[in-house]
Amino acid sequence: MDHPFILKLNEAAQDKRSVYLYTEVCKAGTLMDVLNKMTRMNVELARFYVAQIVSCFEHMHGSNIIYRDLKPENILITSNGYVKLADFGFVKKL
Fold this sequence. Notes:
It is a single chain. The strands form 3 sheets. The chain has a two-stranded antiparallel sheet with strand order 1-2. Helix content is 29%, strand content 22%. The protein is an alpha+beta fold. The chain has one domain (9-93): Transferase(Phosphotransferase) domain 1 (Transferase(Phosphotransferase), domain 1, Orthogonal Bundle), CATH 1.10.510.10.
C-alpha cells in the first residue's frame, strides 16, 4: 500500500525459523503511548489523528481492502507527529 499514513514495508527476509519485516522507523511510539501520557486529548489533536486514519481507510477501501484490527497499539506516530497505520495481519482483500 502506497499511502503517506500507512507504514511502508522496505524489505522482507526469511530464514528457517523466522520471517523478518523491515519497515520504516516511527520513533514516537504508538497512539497508546501518546494517550497514556495525557490525561485528556484535546479535540484538535483527536481530529488531526482521525482525519489521517480516515484517509488510510478511504485509500484501502478504494483498493477493495478491509482493515480489521484498528486499535491504538496499531497506530504508530512518526517523529513529526503524523500517524502510520501498521499491522496488516487481519486485512481482508475483497
